[in-house]
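Materials and Methods. Structural model of DELE protein. The 201-residue sequence of DELE protein from Irena cyanogastra was retrieved and submitted for structure prediction as follows.
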Amino acid sequence: LEEAAFQLQQIFRIDISIALNILGVESMRAGHCRVAFTCFKLAADRGYSKAQFNVGLCYEHGRGTEKDLEKAGWYYCQAASSHHPMAQYHYARHLLQHGPGSLRHRQHKALALLEQAAGAGVTEAQAYLGVFYMRGLQPQEKRGLKYLLQAANSGDAQSRYHVGVCYEQGLGVQQNLAEALRHYRQSAAAGNRQARERLQA
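The predicted structure was written out as tokens:
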């Protein structure tokens, strides 16, 4: 009976958190940012990762509350530790831009989070890693191209443009101008200005 009561409490706690988070999303859509933030915060403080991520967004962008990057980072960290992929991406970006400690340590931790987010299909993380590995202090072009292709195949026009650059310049792949043109055309068709300019050049 004790176990059953405990399970019911857990279900009730989770259901309340889900309901509060949904109410927060609907309030945000209706333009009631303060109400949304309050709902997100109540659910986040119950340990619900989706709400923790939403509280992080509110603090990062000053929606429904004062802008506070330190608090945004804290909530992103909480959600990321529960394997929330978008929170992993946002916390990684936070670590690289605002985090405490040495750059090397922050970069190592951020890369691990970005790899997890990219593996979960977060296009932004794939694109970020692609560019990072291409332009880092110690470029890993094949690895960078792998992530750029993942992001491009998820519909990211900027990553598609970068894949074209890789084929044009032979970065991480054998130089192939026909393949570069194909990627530039796809990127341009998706509205990428750099790709249009490259095709004209």
